[in-house]
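Hey, can you fold this one?
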Amino acid sequence: MNGFINVLKPVGATASDIVICVKHVLHEKKVGHLGTLDPGASGVLPVAVGQGTKLFNYLTNKVKYYRAFFTFGKTTDTLDSYGEVVESGGNVPTVDQITDALKSFTGEIQQVPPAYSAISVGGVRAYKLARNGEAVELRSRSVTIYDITLLEQRSADTLVVDIKCSGGTYIRSLARDIAFACGTIGYMSGLIRLQSGCFNIESAYTLDEIREKKEQCLVDVMYPLKDVDEYILEDKHFNNLENGRHIFVQFEGYKKIYCKGVFFGLGKCNNGRLDLEYYLRNAI
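Sure. Predicted structure:
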């Protein structure tokens, strides 16, 4: 089996739990998720199966959509509701203050990931160091917030925000930084991923549905490539493609590469030569 399953991850399960479940249901060894969701978060978790896993790097950096719940006036060590409260008594900003603060969090911004994250520090995951009480210093990095909209005030101290952002964005860090911009403290008290690239929550399957329908939940490898243009090579290049020889091309961005009606994979032009970066000859 080759392709993807759009999983509706429940609160409490880890991304690894979901992968194990899909492996068991489909009896497939080669399975991997496309972008971690913390146990406390729910929503879209695309899972690659078979040769779909070859597209991991291509798909993990796609645009993400989230619905986040930000609570102000206190914070936790993990910056979410699963951590220990480490500070409280902060003021709760008004809706107007939040709205004003959000204006400075659009576009490309610098963000320091949470100490409790899977980022490697000297070969050790940051969250492991944090759990052991060790100081964790992570460098800031660039992420892009395409849109951030305040939806509603859910309670006296909690607001609901919709976010469209680049891959690699930490919503927990965003909660911390927005609170700081308002002169207070805060954390992410809930998170739902509404969309990851072309996979959206409306077409996601629950674990029970996956157990019942099995491979019927699988979409093929071409599904996330549906908006990528085709590039058809002349028949004379077929053997060159199969044997990895240089082929001279000229085009921009990624293209789906075909020759003699056969799909070879996803490629781009690199200094005038075809770079078949994702070889998918036997994926469909």
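The mean pLDDT is 93. Let me know if you want another pass with a different chain boundary.
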